Amino acid sequence: MENDSLNAENIDENAVDSTQPVDDGAVAAPIHDMPSPEQLGISITAGPEGGMSSVTVGDTFEFPVTVSWGTQSSLLVVPTGSANAKGLLQVGMSQESSHTVKDGQEGASIVFTYKIVAQDTGNLNVPAMRFEIPTSLGIPIELRSESVPVRVNEPLNPLPFGVGLVVALCVLFAGLWRVKRRAAVREAAAAKNAAEDALRERMMVLKQRVNSADSRDWLLELESICKEYVAERFGCAASAVNLDNLVKEGKLEGWETLVEEFAHARYGGGKRDGFENKETWKGAMKLMGISEED
User: Fold this and answer.
1) Is 3 part of a structural domain of the chain?
2) Which residues contact 54 (CB under 8 A, 6 or more apart)?
3) What integer pLDDT is reported at residue 267 of this predicted model?
4) Which domain holds residue 22?
5) Residue 1 pLDDT more than 50?
6) What's the average model confidence in pLDDT over 199-204?
7) Statement to judge: residues 197 and 273 lie in one domain
8) Is residue 132 packed enough to be buried (19+ CB in 10 Å), middle (13-18) or exposed (0-12)?
9) Does residue 149 surpass a pLDDT of 90?
10) Number of domains in the chain
11) pLDDT (tens digit, 9 = 90+) per residue, 37-57?
12) What integer is the mean pLDDT of 30-37?
């Protein structure tokens, strides 16, 4: 038959000395030397396996305390303390009993699981837990666990992280914008250089024909080159360029004489000497800012 407490027969009977004299008028009370928990094969461990992990203030965490003994009989284990301590508040407790068999040896245990709220930050300590095991002699066996340290951290503040993330994104986008802008500038410069090279090449071919080409055809070819330059300058199609109107609007200063020569070639024409075409060519090169050498 299993017992819920330790019987008197488990206690050392030799601990009672009945030969001692008793004072008259008083009732003699027997004195017993209670065995220690270790002598009875009772052990107590506190905290989870592997040690306590850090928690955050405001969290509720579980703290197990295991009382075990190497026998198949049941013991009545009574908690006599709480897990309340500086910065820690016990809000609940449950217990679970179990029996085990290992290497042919039977054992039993009770796990007391305390629910504790972390109310403060810092290096705190879960206090030593106290228990009593009643005996038939009326003197309980006392058990006491070790105090266990626990680290309680402040809650994560998302604001600095959020600000840092926004700043990082801004820096990233600014860097991407600068890279994109520089690439666009390089592309524009490359396109401009390509356009200038193409115009220079056409102008150099035209220079070689100042003496051999028909003056009217030569001037009209020069006009088409000038229109392409103006179209590139104003960002429009060459077919939409009207040099006469642009000169009248003051958008092509210094082009008046050259435009008059184009108009004369279109509506009148006539034979021109090579040196005249060359002077016109030089003037056009200067107005378009094109040099003979790259």
Assistant:
1) no
2) 150, 151, 152, 153
3) 81
4) 8-153
5) no
6) 89
7) yes
8) middle
9) yes
10) 2
11) 888 889 999 999 888 999 999
12) 68
Instruction: For residue 182, give the amino acid letter.
Output: R
Cβ contacts of residue 257 below 8 Å, gap of 6+? 283
Q: Report yes or no on 294 lying in a domain.
A: no
What is the token pair recorded at 213?
């080409």
8 pLDDT band (50/70/90 cuts)? very low
Residue 191 — very low, low, confident or very high, per pLDDT cuts 50/70/90?
confident
Contact assessment for residue 77 and residue 143, using Cβ atoms and an 8 Å cutoff = yes
pTM given for the model: 0.49
Looking at the fold, whether 145 and 20 belong to one and the same domain comes out as yes
CA distance 222 to 234: 18
Write down which residue in 127, 153, 179 finishes a domain: 153
Question: What does the H/E/C string look like for the chain?
Answer: CCCCCECHHHCCHHHCCCCCCCCCCCCCCCCCCCCCCCCCCEEEEECCCCCCCCEECCCEEEEEEEEEECCCCCCCCEECCCCCECCEEEEEEEEEEEEEEECCEEEEEEEEEEEEEECCCEEEEECCCEEEECECCCCCEEEECCCEEEEEECCCCHHHHHHHHHHHHHHHHHHHHHHHHHHHHHHHHHHHHHHHHHHHHHHHHHHHCCCCCCHHHHHHHHHHHHHHHHHHHHCCCHHHCCHHHHHHCCCCCCCHHHHHHHHHHHHCCCCCCHHHHHHHHHHHHHHHCCCCCC
Query: Which of 108, 131, 153 corresponds to the end of one domain?
Result: 153
Q: In this structure, what are the phi and psi dihedrals at residue 270, rounded to the nearest 5 degrees?
A: 120, 160
